[in-house]
Design a protein that fits this description.
Radius of gyration of chain A: 21 Å
CATH superfamily of the largest domain in chain A: Nucleoside Triphosphate Pyrophosphohydrolase
CATH architecture of the largest domain in chain A: Alpha-Beta Complex
CATH class of the largest domain in chain A: Alpha Beta
Distance between the termini of chain A: 66 Å
Number of strands of chain A: 10
Helix content of chain A: 25-40%
Order of helices and strands of chain A: EEEEEHEEEHHHEEH
Shape of chain A: elongated
Oligomer: homodimer
DNA sequence: CCAAAAGTGTTCGCGGTACACCCATGC
DNA sequence: GCATGGGTGTACCGCGAACACTTTTGG
């Protein structure tokens, strides 16, 4: 066995090889008639120049969700969004260079809050429609698929759709949201009946402005009431 | 900066500190009238002697699910079970010694296949009822809670309950399974009507033996038919 | 013959679904 | 006044829920 001196400061020696641990974030936003995902351009190899999910390595003493929020803020400026762990991707060869295990998160954002119009390459970030994604780095396409599947499943029994809308919204906007996510048309009267019967979406006395037709009433989601009902066993369902 | 010589073989040097990555498995089994979880006694510090989930570190070139299956086989002898990724636990201080990120899996086993009766400390493994778990190492109690919550949620819209039963089962057994998992009683006639209407549980010409009352007919789950239906958009629901 | 669990139908009410027209507003 | 979406009610049907007695078998 060769001689052994301690490693220089800033280097770390382990008995066993360790994978690197990263987080990646699928940020979904609702546009007029489709879902979009927020991508950034990679500035470094591997996959330099390719589109990728915002993400990065987890800090030494940093929680996973904290790392995801930090990366989101650093790379896209997004803060304070719905964020939930999605799945952990760890196939040995998902990164060509070395073993990286990635804990994926998905976030739901109000597209209006982050006007990086598709062209804007400002911070190298942009919204891309799910229906025509560019070539993506690593296994990021699969991660996006998983996020969309999760959203599709969860939107029906949890009130997460509201995370994609502004605080005040019309019932037509809400209906479009479900139609886009579930990929099927819904009957207007039945949808309204159903939503209003839950008594969790309550009307405000405000109306739409700046539309060139009859202005629709604005509603808001009553999260406090929802939280209270959940404690008593209530189950949201669309 | 101090002098630097290469580390001895078997040691690994990284530019940045890296967490260790482990997998932990929550194996759930259905007993006569409750769910049980498979625990092992830890032979090493930290938490030496405490009960813990089977699990261990992920190999250098090993996939996450592969690691989970390997640990299960090594520590409990279980192979070939339903196994699904659950959640990744990564709070910085969940292990008192060093940073460990754990990718948790949950498995559903036919208790009858693994007769480690509660006393048997054979390989230091034993089944413990969820209602009175011993003190557990690390955050393993929280991991078990997450697994049970997942099972409770998923059993209603995916046919995973069958993983807990032998290949041939009576409708009463199936009903008990749902009652135990969902923690509420079900009406016998309505349950049978509902299950049989799905046309996925089909009767065999076998009957129970060794019971001291009228023998019940045995049924089996038609997984092939289920897989076919799913491809056409069918959704299982109880 | 007794204990124990298997097996079997009907009624009722609610909630999902299908479906079409008038209203308000901006231009 | 016309184009554009906003807003509203009713009839039907299927499914979930409630509910009790007869049958079979082993001991």
């Amino acid at each position: 066995m060769s001689a052994w001196t301690p490693p220089p400061p800033g280097r770390h020696v382990y008995e066993y090889p360790r994978p690197a641990v990263a987080v990646d974030c699928v940020v979904l936003g609702l546009d007029t008639d489709d879902l979009k995902v927020l991508l950034i351009r990679r500035g470094v190899d591997p996959w330099k120049g390719a589109w990728a999910l915002p993400g990065g390595f987890v800090g030494e003493r940093e929680g996973l969700e904290a790392a995801a929020r930090r990366e989101l803020a650093e790379e896209t400026g997004i803060g304070e969004v719905f964020l939930e762990q999605l799945y952990t991707f760890g196939e040995p060869d998902r990164d060509p260079r070395h073993r990286v295990i990635s804990v994926a998160y998905y976030a739901l954002a109000k597209l209006s809050d982050f006007k990086l119009t598709a062209g804007t390459d400002a911070a190298g970030a942009g919204w891309h429609p799910l229906s025509k994604l560019p070539a993506l780095a690593f296994d990021h396409a699969a991660i996006i698929d998983a996020a969309v599947a999760r959203l599709r499943g969860k939107v029906r029994y949890a009130p997460i759709g509201f995370e994609l809308l502004p605080p005040r919204f019309t019932l037509t906007q809400l209906q479009r949201l479900y139609e886009i996510i579930l990929e099927r048309e819904l009957d207007k009267r039945n949808f309204r009946k159903k939503i209003l019967s839950l008594d969790l979406v309550i009307e405000t006395d405000e109306k739409q402005t700046g539309v060139r037709h009859r202005a629709a009433r604005l509603y808001r989601f009553d999260r406090k009431k929802y939280d209270r009902l959940v404690k008593h066993g209530f189950e949201f369902a669309i």
